[in-house]
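Possible regression after last week's pipeline update?

I re-ran a chain I had predicted before the update to compare outputs. Posting the input and the new output here so someone can diff against the archived version. Not blocking, just want to make sure nothing changed silently.
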Amino acid sequence: MSHGLPCRPPADLGPTLPAQNLEHFNTAPAAEAHRTLLTCLHSPRWARIVAAHRPYPDLSSLLAAADEATYDLGPEGLAGALAEEPPPSLPAGTYAAASTALSAAYAAYEARFGHTFVICLDDTAPDETLDRVLPAIRSRLAHEPEDERAIAREELRRLANGRLRGLLGAAAEPSVHL
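New output (post-update):
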């Protein structure tokens, strides 16, 4: 498994739609919409469900459907999505000691929970990444495995939501929380 701070979509999924509006997303061929959705959350089942419910009348409806599909991920789907999250991108100039501490924390987290650490950093400035991530990992290491899976699922939901907004050029609209 890779260790992930998902701030960018998984790579190597083939061509995806450029920044697009909802109408374009709604009318894109199914295979193209599916590939695009996989860049938001690498779960074939999630992408299939979200794509199958097109057309969406508005962004809120799309985000609500994406949220629901995330909540419906079973243990295997959740594990698969967690395994595909990209490695962290630490700010340039991060001290070696900080990188070492972060690597050790990732290893401890993965050993305890059996999956990668994920956290949505959409509202975090790049120079604050390390200050947010390291305490979050340490805090979450104290959770029971089932509780931590629920938190990881929520972080994946937030990541997918942010990535969808980015693809649709809708970053300024308020988040949908179910």
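Follow-up from reviewer: compared with the archived run. The radius of gyration is 16 Å. Marking as no regression found.
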